[in-house]
Write a structure and sequence with these properties.
CATH superfamily: Adenovirus Type 2 Hexon, domain 4
Shape: globular
Distance between the termini: 32 Å
Number of strands: 27
Number of domains: 1
CATH architecture: Distorted Sandwich
Helix content: 10-25%
Mean pLDDT: 84
Structural class: alpha+beta
Strand content: 25-35%
Number of helices: 12
Length: 491
């Protein structure tokens, strides 16, 4: 991962033309290394708060640094062992993330943001998840070889692995417990989450602003001091507090509570804060910046738009639908299938299911995009390896996920069973296999806007149950700051 002072993808998603047209002070990647600055930090309480949404309002001073963060704490009733979903962590709480002005100008608005993070989180490497994210955000997808019981050697024989005697599994710096007599209170055989992740610890977690908003994810700072006439607001819409929308539960809790529908998981208002970092530069630099751009400043950034559809088993076989984007400049499309009724597992409802299992292999997904009267590829994509490559190209990073977890294909190496190889009593093989099957298409090479017919997604897959198909379009926009006001436009 990159230096903690810099967002992981800072500068990577910003368009070259925008970086060339905007002042260097607005992007932390463009700042000279010898820049003199000071940072003020405010701990802001929500302007309004409920179990459905929270609103914070920023002061019109300095530059808002993209490493500013939302701090979140929860209270849980009805569950003995509740913990963040392993792939998205505390990000599961945020259904929608909005960055706007008090005048109603929307800079970023991402719906189903938590589901999009199931894609983004795949690009965190193992060590970052284990050493940092499980303490800050609750994410903990780190895989390591698990050794056969009574042996100092890993088991590589496929038959033995399937029998539950070895393979690889989640690793969180704690040993797998083989004997029930050595367990901590309420723990289970196999692996258990670290204590600070349990609801009983009442820990707080953080979500960075550069994770919430694509504008800031590109490394951009917001020049708040240029907006004295209107303030910037951060608005988060929460997932529903009931059921298993917010946290995962142990297998024992699921069995005890009958699918855990009676559990109440609340965001605690007193633990919900915005830690805002305001950057200031030498006085003459700030004043010159203000004078230079009093009459107007324009630069580009990216926003995200969601298109969602419920897909039945029958319609999934040959599905064509319009994703929108007509008249806009679209850089890429990220999409997936989420399995209905999958909330009670390690990933919750934040999975991306591969096509149905047939024997020991999975059916193939066939997909393509129809843009500006032509298909993006002359032949539809069916090879999972090519689909993995397309996701990498669209996201500009390498997913840290195994072939088995991605497409459900290859050797079945995930440890299974509900005892010594479980994670909080849950079968890793049953709940992680083929559950990271995200798809991506990169369109920026087209070099032109989408015509009035929009983008059509052609897909064909054999699914075992009804699914929700989500697609996020990365759309170019530009912002104009002039005379103390901010305006946003689609390009």
């Amino acid at each position: 991962m990159s230096d903690p002072q810099t967002p992981d993808d800072a500068g990577d998603t910003a368009m070259a033309s925008s970086k060339g047209s905007q002042p260097s002070l607005l992007n932390i990647k463009s700042l000279p290394t010898n820049s003199l600055m000071r940072v003020e930090s405010d701990v802001l309480e929500p302007l309004t708060f409920s179990q459905s949404e929270a609103v914070w309002e920023l002061q019109p001073k300095g530059f808002l640094h993209p490493n500013s963060a939302i701090e979140i704490g929860m209270s849980v009733g009805g569950a003995t062992r509740a913990f963040p979903f392993v792939n998205v962590g505390v990000h599961s709480l945020v259904r929608r993330a909005v960055l706007r002005t008090t005048a109603g100008r929307v800079i970023n608005d991402t719906d189903d943001w938590n589901h999009l993070q199931s894609v983004k989180s795949m690009f965190l490497n193992n060590s970052s998840n284990k050493e940092r994210e499980q303490y800050t955000s609750g994410r903990q997808v780190d895989f390591a070889v698990q050794y056969a019981e009574g042996s100092d050697l890993s088991v590589t024989d496929r038959v033995t692995i399937i029998a539950g005697e070895g393979g690889y599994g989640l690793c969180n710096n704690l040993d797998y417990c083989e004997m029930a007599s050595t367990l901590l209170t309420n723990g289970s055989q196999g692996a258990n989450v670290q204590h600070h992740l349990l609801n009983t610890a009442e820990s707080t977690f953080q979500i960075k602003l550069h994770e919430l908003f694509p504008y800031m994810g590109a490394g951009n700072q917001l020049p708040l001091f240029l907006l004295p006439n209107e303030k910037i607001q951060v608005v988060l819409y929460w997932t529903q507090p009931g059921g298993t929308n917010r946290l995962c539960i142990s297998q024992a809790d699921e069995t005890l509570a009958g699918d855990h529908v009676d559990s109440v998981i609340n965001v605690v208002q007193g633990k919900c804060k915005l830690i805002a970092d305001y950057t200031f530069y030498q006085g003459e630099i700030m004043e010159k910046f203000r004078d230079d751009y009093t009459k107007g400043m324009t630069f580009m950034y990216n926003d995200t738009r969601l298109s969602k559809q419920t897909v039945t088993v029958a319609t999934a076989v040959n599905n064509v639908r319009n994703l929108g984007g007509n008249g806009m400049m679209v850089d890429n499309v990220i999409w997936n299938y989420q399995e209905a009724g999958s909330e009670l597992n390690l990933l919750g409802g934040f999975d991306a299911i591969a096509p149905s299992v047939v024997g020991v292999s999975r059916n193939r997904l066939t997909s393509n995009l129809f843009v500006n009267s032509e298909f993006l590829y002359p032949q539809s994509i069916t090879n999972p390896a090519r689909q993995f490559h397309n996701l990498k190209e669209a996201s500009k990073g390498i997913p840290f996920i195994t072939r088995e977890c991605y497409s459900g294909q290859g050797i079945e190496g995930l440890v299974s069973g509900a005892t010594v190889h479980s994670f909080e009593g849950r079968s890793q093989g049953g709940e992680l296999n083929g559950e990271f099957f995200h798809q991506g298409f990169r369109l920026s090479g087209l070099g032109r806007r989408v015509d009035n017919t929009g983008i059509r997604l052609h897909s064909s897959a054999t699914m075992g149950a009804a699914t929700t198909q989500r697609a996020w379009l990365s759309i170019r926009r530009y912002v104009v700051i002039s005379d103390g006001h901010l305006e946003c436009y689609f390009i």
